[in-house]
Design goal:
Elements: E1 12-17, E2 21-25, E3 31-35, E4 43-51, H1 53-66, E5 72-74, E6 82-93, E7 98-107
Antiparallel strand pairs: 1-4, 2-3, 4-7, 5-6, 6-7
């Protein structure tokens, strides 16, 4: 059973959605479009945290344990639960706090 990401972003969260669509364009400008797969709409969330270094250690540890490979449960703000992977995150370190930006990509298993 997948782990659950339970940490809440402190600076905000933004969602980007880009449906996968196969497009064929013809010389006269005519085009045909069709969905690419049964789960062609995949959500991507960018989360920003700004907390004390000690508090951010738990978030970073969770991400490192999942390793960008293992999916985990997460419920986005005002959204529905799903399975996600985090393949990249950025960390800016200051004296008093760390700022971490994560990118969660929805997966279907």
């Amino acid at each position: 059973m997948p782990n659950t990401f339970t940490y809440n972003p402190t600076y905000g969260a933004t969602e980007a959605t880009k449906p996968r669509v196969l497009v064929t364009t013809f010389g006269d400008g005519y085009e045909q479009r069709v969905v690419d797969g049964i789960n062609h709409i995949r959500r991507v969330w960018n989360l920003t945290f700004s907390k004390a270094s000690a508090d951010m250690a738990a978030v970073i540890s969770f991400l490192e344990n999942e390793g960008g490979v293992t999916s985990f449960n997460w419920t986005p703000p005002r959204g529905s639960a799903g399975l996600w992977v985090c393949r990249e995150w950025n960390r800016a370190v200051n004296d008093a706090f760390d700022q971490v930006t994560l990118q969660f990509v929805e997966v279907f298993e």
